[in-house]
């Protein structure tokens, strides 16, 4: 409530925020979490909490009147359509050179992501977080994160015969015929549930194509893991549809946090102020960076240092499709949860997720999301004229990522005698180079913060999300975000509380 005092306030309920809340609560600290998205605990008129991927509706997009689907076209037909402007689950946030997709709601990105839960190879770790001791990460914090998230491997015997993974087996065949290592990757999906979906025994979720607008069953989002455990402590409360707009030092000590309560059209219903002894920025790479950049520039947090807003990367994301021959159908039933990737990181700088294209019809298409070792980094800056935070990303920078992804797919196409699809991103475009699913950086560890996420210049303020990671994780990021949060919060609780 307005005017109240809390010991620890957490901005955002994604991976970093959920880890902070659980560990603080278990250490006896009362925590209040502020989340600008919805709670996602109430079914809509169709009896379901989340909309299907093939039928986006008012629940699907964050405050835009028209969908902006990552795949904008199919077979030459535009897919986007008008929807009511609503506090939906997926934010396609536009900056000048890039659209950044993010989850909105209690659970953050865990509500919309593909559940791929990948621990980077240990010898690549120094490149990802150079100031963090790999020994403690691989002995303690990665295992703790994987356990907390409920990460498991698909049963490979079942996978070999599952109709829903024919697309992935085609992906394996083509990778191996060109000499690329094909690797299984763990996931947070409940595989027993998926087996029952395939057997027709339970309502379908992954096998109904549910993913980017939420999964009604089967996926262990943070709502079912860290946040459920946090709630069970009795010490964690969550305010959904509340957006933090300012944090500044309070005269009486601690910080004054200004919060807008919004309705599902985005209109502000009330403005509240809360005093917090300590504040954890866990609004995601973009959310945390935008807040800190503005608060530094406008003088609310004058002590923040010159590294705020810097070191931002897109994890080198680039998408593409390949057109297979008629003898390589990828299946009209495709599980929305990916299980595998092609690893050409050492030789070509690319790790490609063999992704589903769950259209419900046979497309003979193979679809991939590549993560690449791009050196490009952008920065956020405050624009007083527009009252917005800009990002200095240049669309042309994606060419390095495209070149790295081509180290895999040009070779596969040459070997198979196949071509790229040009009907997925509009106007004969082969490469999905306009977006990222993996924003990282903006409050980089040991630069904007100390080596455990304490923001320089303002004791009691912390960054504890993807903003700490300087732009690239070599694989999908949420396990690393979670493991780093586990490492940092342990030290923060021991020394600061
Ligand atoms: P987030 O999870 O983004 O959480 C931040 C939260 O803060 C959000 O809920 C947001 O609404 C809230 N917030 C922001 N600003 C404010 C504010 N001012 N006030 C209050 N609340 C605020 N990663 C993988 O590892 N594997 C995958 O398979 C994968 N697939 C993906 C698929 C899609 C479509 C997308 C979009 C992402 C995917 N990712 C995947 C990326 C992964 O989800 C993110 O890296 C991860 O969620 C980031 O965690 P975080 O804790 O930094 O922040």
UniProtKB/TrEMBL annotation:
The keyword Oxidoreductase applies. One of its GO terms (biological process) is cholesterol metabolic process. Keywords: Cholesterol metabolism, FAD, Flavoprotein, Isomerase, Lipid metabolism, Oxidoreductase, Steroid metabolism, Sterol metabolism. InterPro entries: Cholesterol_Oxidase, FAD/NAD-bd_sf, GMC_OxRdtase_N, GMC_OxRtase_C, TAT_signal. Belongs to the GMC oxidoreductase family. SUPFAM superfamilies: FAD-linked reductases, C-terminal domain (SSF54373), FAD/NAD(P)-binding domain (SSF51905). It comes from the Bacteria. This is Cholesterol oxidase. It holds the Pfam family GMC_oxred_C. One of its GO terms (molecular function) is cholesterol oxidase activity. PROSITE patterns: TAT. Pathway: Steroid metabolism; cholesterol degradation. Residues 94-294 form the Glucose-methanol-choline oxidoreductase N-terminal domain. The lineage of its organism: Bacteria, Bacillati, Actinomycetota, Actinomycetes, Kitasatosporales. Residues 436-485 form the Glucose-methanol-choline oxidoreductase C-terminal domain. Its EC number is 1.1.3.6, 5.3.3.1. Its cofactor is FAD.
């Amino acid at each position: 409530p307005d005017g109240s005092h809390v010991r620890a306030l957490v901005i955002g309920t994604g991976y970093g925020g959920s880890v902070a809340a659980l560990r603080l609560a278990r250490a006896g600290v009362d925590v209040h979490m502020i989340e600008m998205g919805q709670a996602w605990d109430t079914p809509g008129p169709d009896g379901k909490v989340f909309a299907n991927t093939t039928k986006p509706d008012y629940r699907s997009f964050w405050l835009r009147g028209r969908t902006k689907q990552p795949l904008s076209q199919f077979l030459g037909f535009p897919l986007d359509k008008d929807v009511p402007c609503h506090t939906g689950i997926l934010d396609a946030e536009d900056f000048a050179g890039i659209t950044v997709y993010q989850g909105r709601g209690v659970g953050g990105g865990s509500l919309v992501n593909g559940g791929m839960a990948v621990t980077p190879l240990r010898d690549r770790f120094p490149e990802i977080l150079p100031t963090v001791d790999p020994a403690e990460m691989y002995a303690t914090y990665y295992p703790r994160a994987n356990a907390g998230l409920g990460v498991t491997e698909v049963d490979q015997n079942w996978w070999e015969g599952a109709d829903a993974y024919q697309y992935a087996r085609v992906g394996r065949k083509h990778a191996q015929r060109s000499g690329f290592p094909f690797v299984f990757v763990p996931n947070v999906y409940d595989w027993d549930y998926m087996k029952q979906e395939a057997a027709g025994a339970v309502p379908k979720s992954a096998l109904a194509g549910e993913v980017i607008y939420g999964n009604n069953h089967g996926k262990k989002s943070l709502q079912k893991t860290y946040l459920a455990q946090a709630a069970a402590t009795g010490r964690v409360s969550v305010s959904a549809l509340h957006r933090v707009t300012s944090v500044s030092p309070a005269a009486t000590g601690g910080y004054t946090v200004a919060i807008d309560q919004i309705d599902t059209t985005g209109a502000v219903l009330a403005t509240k102020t809360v005093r917090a002894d300590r504040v954890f920025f866990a609004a995601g790479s973009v959310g945390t960076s935008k807040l800190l950049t503005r608060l530094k520039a406008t003088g609310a947090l004058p002590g923040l240092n010159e590294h705020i807003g810097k070191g931002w990367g897109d994890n080198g994301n680039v998408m593409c499709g390949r057109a297979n021959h008629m003898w390589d159908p990828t299946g009209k039933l495709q599980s929305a949860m990916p299980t595998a990737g092609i690893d050409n990181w050492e030789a070509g700088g690319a790790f490609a997720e063999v992704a589903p294209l769950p259209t419900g019809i046979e497309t003979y298409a193979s679809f991939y999301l590549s993560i690449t070792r791009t050196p490009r980094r952008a920065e956020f800056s405050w624009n007083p004229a527009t009252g917005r935070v800009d990002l200095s990303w240049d669309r042309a920078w994606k060419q390095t990522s495209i070149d790295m992804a081509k180290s895999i797919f040009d070779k596969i196409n040459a070997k198979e005698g196949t071509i790229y699809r040009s009907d997925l991103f509009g106007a004969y475009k082969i490469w999905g180079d306009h977006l990222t699913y993996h924003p990282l950086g903006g409050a980089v560890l040991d630069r904007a913060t100390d080596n455990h996420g304490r923001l320089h210049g303002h004791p009691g303020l912390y960054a504890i999300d993807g903003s700490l990671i300087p732009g690239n994780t070599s694989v999908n990021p949420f396990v690393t975000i979670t493991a780093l949060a586990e490492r940092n919060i342990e030290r923060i609780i021991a020394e600061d509380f």
